[in-house]
């Protein structure tokens, strides 16, 4: 059974970089034919896809966030990561990592990241 | 960019009633349309994938249909645990993913 778990700081200062990691359990990230994605949800609002990465390093980003987002994958640690630069209060959200093909079928529990000084 | 518009924004029904939720796309889609249920404080749960296939463990009262630009999630007879927010989601041929803004299903 594939399981995912997000980790990273819960508080980030404005203009700084938000960094999160997602650990994958239940198999090697390299052997699954999944994309590994990030989705966020501001408090009280809907879901927004941030971007996805394949184990080979191929990436796809939400056009609205592309200029600030970098995804990476570390197969030796069985994890993938998100960096979001120049954050503002609008980036405050629960951040989820998830595996997907055409749909998201395994989600991490989510981690709340607050942008505040 | 494909935009998914869900309607209604809020649907007020009673247990036992039939719920019909709509997801309309700004252009014709492949059938890569999924539906999720989210309850307060919980992670979204996959209900339907590829427009009409129920995910593992999803009760038969949940059904998906549609093609082109119009898709529907139907809950045939509402149970108390079905009151939640529902999202549709699409993955385009260019690998971009969009979510609808959600429909809140509330108890009348």
Whole-number mean pLDDT of chain B: 96
Weakly predicted, low-confidence segments of chain A: none
- % residues in beta strands of chain B: over 45%
Radius of gyration of chain A: 13 Å
Structural class of chain A: mainly beta
Question: Your description of this structure?
Answer:
The complex is a heterodimer of chains A (117) and B (108). Chain A is built from no helices and 11 strands. The relative contact order of chain A is 0.32. In chain A, a hairpin with a 3-residue loop joins strand 9 (93-100) and strand 10. By secondary structure, chain A is mainly beta. Helix content of chain A is 0%, strand content 51%. In chain A, the strands form 2 sheets. In chain A, strands 2, 4, 5, 6, 9, 10 and 11 form a 7-stranded mixed β-sheet that branches. In chain A, strands 1-3-8-7 form a 4-stranded antiparallel β-sheet, with no helix packed on it. With 108 residues, chain B is mostly beta strands. Chain B has no helices and 10 strands. Chain B has strands spanning 4-7, 10-13, 19-29, 33-38, 45-49, 53-54, 62-75, 85-91, 97-99, 103-107. In chain B, strands 2, 4, 5, 6, 8, 9 and 10 form a 7-stranded mixed β-sheet that branches. In chain B, a hairpin with a 5-residue loop joins strand 8 and strand 9. The relative contact order of chain B is 0.33. The mean pLDDT of chain B is 96. The chains are: A mainly beta (117), B mainly beta (108). The interface between A and B is medium-sized, with 22 and 23 residues.
